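Anyone up for a design puzzle?
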């Protein structure tokens, strides 16, 4: 693995272009676009205010920069640096902005979720979608870019509208059997839309493209319900992470539960491999010691190295008892992700915060547990192969694949605390983000 130098960053805003050739990053009100392979700066764009959100168009030709405080979106062209576009929502304000799948329309959600405005970069026409719901995930597109689903709230009831993205015509409009719709998500094949209620009501609904209710699922009634939802890339499985520390897997034929995965605080099965991160101080040969010490010797004296050791079962994991009388308790399965080949599912149970669980979907059993020294901040699968990268807020990046796992120290001076990471679509590099810097990691 090779690492680039550290570059300045603000707001954790660094994004690979969909074609994997460029990386856009923000420093206050400046947008810097670099070539991924050479790290040469291709363009620098100066925005009107501090950038709060960036997004590439699907063809990697345009970049959207949203300044929510000022209600402004600026769009920049990579091919024609002199061309630019400014969208001002004025007194309506702005709380969210995104590209349509064709990369030529921008959807802006106004303050108080009064409406979504669809701006066309080609014809300069404007369309409006009324009553969007203020929820976790309220606007979603099918993977092929043909349809858009919008969660709506009108007359104290939840609805879903499905639009055709080519002309923004309404295809279907139907009410949902939810108390307080929290999120919607298309299956990757675009045939089924999952909708789920807020955590106060355990209910997941599955709708067809024409608005028919295919199935509804409820695991239990009174305690806190659904916390996270993820489709498998093949659309064959839907994983539901719940506040009761379990993941339930539904199948795409009957939409019934085929299994549930528990996250106990003690791992006792001998078929599960438990990798435990341990820190070791490097041993320094006494002949090398000098006073004053050289710079590299000083840094190696005070640095600790990290590696994985295989623990003997049974293993007790670090369990944190949740505070029951607070809002959003740290309990339940809050992170879920399927590998690109559908073979593995990675999960994190929020009250065992230092641990990642990796399940074998073919055998429907727990395969590996990674126990870290610090809290898991983020994990993400390689888009090309079954390889999981994770970070824990220190200056190391951790990788797991079926062949084993490793901890890699990011070289460099200063305290580089990685709180987020993202893979390039090519799978041969990733960007590691701290609150003030980022670096690129190239994998052989």
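Challenge accepted. My sequence:
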């Amino acid at each position: 693995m090779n690492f680039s130098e550290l570059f300045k960053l603000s707001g954790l805003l660094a994004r690979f272009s969909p074609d994997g050739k460029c990386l856009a990053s923000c420093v206050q009100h400046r947008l810097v676009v670099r070539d991924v392979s050479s790290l040469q700066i291709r363009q620098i764009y100066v925005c009107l205010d501090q950038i709060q959100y960036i997004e590439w168009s699907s063809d990697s030709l345009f970049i959207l920069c949203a300044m929510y405080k000022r209600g402004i979106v600026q769009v920049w062209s990579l091919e024609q640096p002199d061309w630019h576009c400014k969208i001002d929502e004025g007194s309506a304000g702005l709380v969210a902005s995104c590209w349509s799948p064709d990369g030529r329309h921008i959807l802006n959600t106004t303050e108080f979720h009064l409406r979504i405005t669809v701006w066309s970069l080609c014809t300069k026409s404007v369309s409006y979608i009324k009553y969007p719901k203020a929820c976790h995930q309220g606007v979603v597109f099918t993977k092929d870019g043909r349809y858009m689903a919008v969660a709506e709230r009108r007359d104290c009831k939840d609805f879903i509208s499905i639009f055709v993205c080519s002309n923004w015509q309404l295809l279907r409009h139907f009410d949902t059997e939810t108390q307080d719709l929290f999120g919607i998500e298309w299956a990757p094949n675009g045939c089924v839309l999952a909708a789920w209620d807020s955590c106060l009501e355990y209910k997941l609904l599955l709708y067809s493209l024409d608005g028919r209710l295919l199935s509804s699922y409820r695991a239990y009634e009174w305690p806190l319900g659904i916390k996270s939802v993820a489709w498998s890339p093949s659309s064959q499985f839907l994983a539901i992470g719940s506040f009761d520390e379990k993941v339930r897997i539904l199948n795409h034929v009957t939409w019934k539960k085929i299994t549930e995965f528990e996250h106990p605080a003690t791992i006792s099965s001998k078929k599960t491999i438990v990798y435990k991160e341990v820190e070791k101080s490097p041993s320094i040969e006494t002949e090398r010691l000098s006073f004053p010490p050289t710079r590299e010797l000083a840094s190696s004296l005070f640095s600790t190295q990290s590696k994985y050791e295989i623990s003997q079962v049974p293993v007790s994991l670090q369990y944190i008892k949740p505070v029951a009388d607070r809002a959003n308790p740290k309990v339940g399965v809050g992170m879920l992700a399927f590998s690109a080949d559908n073979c593995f599912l990675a999960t994190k149970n929020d009250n065992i915060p230092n641990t990642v669980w990796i399940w074998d979907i073919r055998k429907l059993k727990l395969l590996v547990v990674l126990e870290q020294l610090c809290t898991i901040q983020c994990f993400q699968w390689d888009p090309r192969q079954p390889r999981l990268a994770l970070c824990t807020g220190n200056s190391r990046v951790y990788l797991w694949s079926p062949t084993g796992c490793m901890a890699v120290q990011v070289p460099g001076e200063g305290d580089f605390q990685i709180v987020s990471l993202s893979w390039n679509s090519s799978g041969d590099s990733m960007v590691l983000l701290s609150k003030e810097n980022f670096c690129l990691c190239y994998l052989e």
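A detail worth pointing out: The domain at 268-283+292-443 is CATH 2.40.128 (Lipocalin).
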